[in-house]
């Protein structure tokens, strides 16, 4: 019971620390940060794993402490997930607004893509009314919009030529989705 249920999310928590280190490295301009962030994430994952194993090995009081720290870590990760979703919505609204002005997206598409609820409702309606293929096309369109927003953010940070090329390609890809995503 304890291993599977109470401490069941531990390994995903430990793994997320490594992923967090990699994400920090990818979004940093500083070479030292780019080098050390993945190592720090990995070390934090190992430390949390060690702390958990040590606390459950000695005494029942420490086991209770492990429960508090482990679920505190899970709550921290959930907080980061919520923050990430809010940040994603902000980037979608910021970077896709000019796509409406350029004619890449319609205003309705922009509103739908920049709202999680509207995306989910549209996708569900596509599935129910038009089938799996229309659903997949809608999801693909939304994914491409998200990739465009992320790529534009990346270009804003790093001013690289590769991002510009990918932005153009993503805009062209958006034009290929057809009427199912209108």
* Main sheet makeup: none
Secondary structure class reads mainly alpha
Tell me which oligomeric state these chains represent.
Answer: single chain
Number of domains: 2
For the record, give the distance between the C-alpha atoms at the N and C termini, rounded to a whole number: 49 Å
Query: What portion of the residues fall into strands of 2 or more residues?
Result: under 5%
Mean pLDDT: 89
* Shape annotation: flat
Number of helices: 8
**Could you name the ranges where pLDDT drops below 50 across 5 or more consecutive residues?**
none
What is the radius of gyration? 21 Å
What's the total number of strands? 0
Helix content, binned percent: over 70%
Elements, N to C (H/E): HHHHHHHH
Describe the structure.
- The protein has 182 residues and is an all-alpha fold.
- The chain has two domains: 2-84, no CATH class; 90-181, no CATH class.
- It has eight helices and no strands.
- It has helices at residues 2-6, 10-26, 31-58, 60-102, 107-113, 116-130, 132-158, 161-174.
- The radius of gyration is 21 Å and the shape is flat.
- The model has no long low-confidence stretch (mean pLDDT 89).
Can I get a quick summary?
By secondary structure, the chain is mostly helical. Helices cover 86% and strands 0% of the residues.
Provide key terms for this protein.
182 residues; mainly alpha; 2 domains; flat
Helix and strand layout, with pairings?
Elements: H1 2-6, H2 10-26, H3 31-58, H4 60-102, H5 107-113, H6 116-130, H7 132-158, H8 161-174
């Amino acid at each position: 019971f304890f291993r599977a249920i109470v401490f069941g999310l531990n390994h995903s928590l430990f793994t997320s620390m490594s992923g967090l280190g990699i994400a920090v490295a990818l979004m940093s301009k500083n070479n030292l940060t780019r080098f050390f962030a993945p190592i720090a994430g990995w070390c934090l994952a190992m430390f949390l794993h060690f702390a958990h194993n040590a606390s459950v090995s000695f005494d029942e009081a420490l086991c209770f402490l492990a429960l508090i720290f482990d679920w505190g870590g899970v709550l921290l990760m959930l907080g980061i997930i919520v923050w990430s979703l809010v940040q994603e919505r902000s980037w979608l609204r910021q970077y896709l607004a000019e796509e409406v002005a350029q004619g890449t997206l319609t205003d309705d598409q922009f509103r739908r893509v920049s709202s999680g609820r509207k995306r989910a409702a549209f996708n569900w309606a596509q599935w129910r009314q038009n089938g799996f293929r229309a659903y997949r096309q809608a999801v693909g369109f939304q994914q491409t919009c998200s990739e465009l927003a992320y790529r534009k953010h990346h270009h804003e940070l790093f001013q690289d030529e590769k991002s510009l090329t990918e932005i153009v390609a993503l805009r062209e890809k958006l034009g290929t989705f057809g009427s199912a995503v209108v």
